[in-house]
Amino acid sequence: MQNKNYTLEEIENIIDKEFSYELESDNKENDENNDENNNGNIIDEVKEVLKEYIKKDKNNTKALTLLGIAYYSKYDNKKAEKLFKKVLLINPNDDKVLYYTASNYVYYFRRNEKYSEALKLIKKAIELNENDSAYWHLLGYINYKNKNYYAAIEYAEKAVKLNKSYVFDYNNHLEYYLTVIGESYFKLGKYDEAIDIFKEIIKLPWHDQSDFMYLGLSYFEKKEYDKAIENYEKVLEIDPSCDYIENTSAINALAKSYMALGEYQKGIDAYKEYIKKHQWRWIRYLYNKDIEDYKYLIEAFNQLIEEEPNNFKYYDGLETIYSYDLNICDKGANVLEKYLLNNTDNIKHQVYGTLAHLYENIYRYDKAIEMYNKLMEINHFENNDYYRLCDIYKKIKNYDKVLEMYEENTYSNIIKLLDLYDKLFKHEKKDLLIDKAVNYYIDKNDYRGLSDLYLYIGEKYKAIEYYKKYINLDDNKNNGDNFIAIADIYQSLGEKENAEVYYKKAIEVYESKKYKNYWLEIIGDLYNSIGNKNNAIEAYKKAIKVEIKSSSSMYREENRLGRKKFKGYYSKNIGDLYMKIGNKNKALKCYKHAVLLEPNYEEYYISIAKVYNDLNEKGLAKEYYKKAIDIYKKYFEMRPYRCDTLKKMLELYLKIDDKENAKECYKKILEINPYDDEVRKFL
Questions:
Q1: Which among 203, 348, 447, 489 is least buried, having the fewest CB atoms inside 10 angstroms?
Q2: At 245, is the secondary structure helix, strand, or coil?
């Protein structure tokens, strides 16, 4: 179908309407006349027309600009960026395009915002034209995101004063200008000023629930809890699932306000009403919170369970909080046990599966087996359940049952079954199974299965032969892990030259990938494998630059979401890379920065201790190992079934030569899980 022959002026009007936030019109006749311009395909249509204009004149800046804005309006930011850059090469002083390029960098490169580039562009746009409010607003917004709150207020106030723009953008409205000012005042702790601004915003047409939320938060900080409650209730009326703002949701903030007034039951009742009406998941305190943060929410669920003992929704919610959010599996199991006690008919089958997993986590294997058997009875037994049940029988040394289950699904458990035959001295069965398995895999053309089988029985050259056939299949040619697997087998045979050939093939695969930056550390490791230290160091240094760049945007995201546990994540990664290039001092600095960002994460202290140990600073190493042990102790107090935590503690006790405490850890492990042979042998 031929596109309509729009003029550039008509196209400009169409795109401007795409950004329009005009209030709904009462003029139905006018609305009907505009139906054509309101249909969902209109922007796609004008894009094709604009491309024809550009074919005729590749330097038509108006057509290039409009096409860029069309892509920008549909969040196709990469194409928009490319077109805006073309225009600026032709005319570097086009302030309108400078604005759109800067705005594109800020709003549409989610989690990878280019604030520094945007700042330069918008400043240049303002030098060329200081009378457009949208420009000042964007400058204010960038400063807000960079935590320069006083500057943000200054520039946003200029936008408010002008309140006139000739660019079209979703964010180009008075409400947004004022929001930058209001939120900046809030961040600065100037709550009276913030309240004045948000009161002004809610009088305007395009206010939303976040404005009432900031009013509530500001009143809360001023200890005017009744007014805070009033505003939180308005938030919940507008949008009950209001996303987290300032690391809290409206329902949590509402309950907290009641608690601050000493009206605890009212806060609990607020939670209860919310849980009854809405998706309760919006209540949960996300990321690295303690049980104290959930205290009243847990009480709300407990009261609801007492009031409606047959309502599975409440048990499910409470179990999820204990098991998923707080990682307290024993309490999660207790909740579902209560559900089974209170209900005998119409039990949700997933309860048995969840309980089986929880019982596994707390080493109550007899109960886990009981739950899996229940799933089999009601015909809701899945493959994953089957293999987990096999593993449980293996852990408790019920080898007859394991053998029975493995032999029911021979080729799905071939290596495990061969291992078991070895353990039970059933050598004839093992040899017979190997012959059968070889024929089975050959019939299926399963080269990977054959390779794994030959590798298991020690026929490494055969394993390599079939792995090469596996790689030659189309789907496997670009998987670097496959080349590494062959290289590792050659390496185990002492054939370093052949190993190097396949490590190099893996390097080629990873270096040819579209998003090569994700694979830089692996590339460095592979260069190390072939003894090319210079290329390895170069790859690691590039990886460090990528991590530093990624960290700047992620720190902002983590601050917004309150993801404390992960705040030091990038610093730790960068430190690990510095260790790989042998720069221990820089690694130490990174690890200490990780501790500064998140002082309650044991892994960072262990990394510091390892560096000090390498530097022969044994006293400092011991100090940091002890700090990690203290964090593990606190974690174990809340989760006294966690053998993995005890094992980490005992490793650290041995590092600081505290054998008595290590021995106590081992004893506790055996009390929790008497089937742990590794620990028993050690003692």
A1: 203
A2: strand
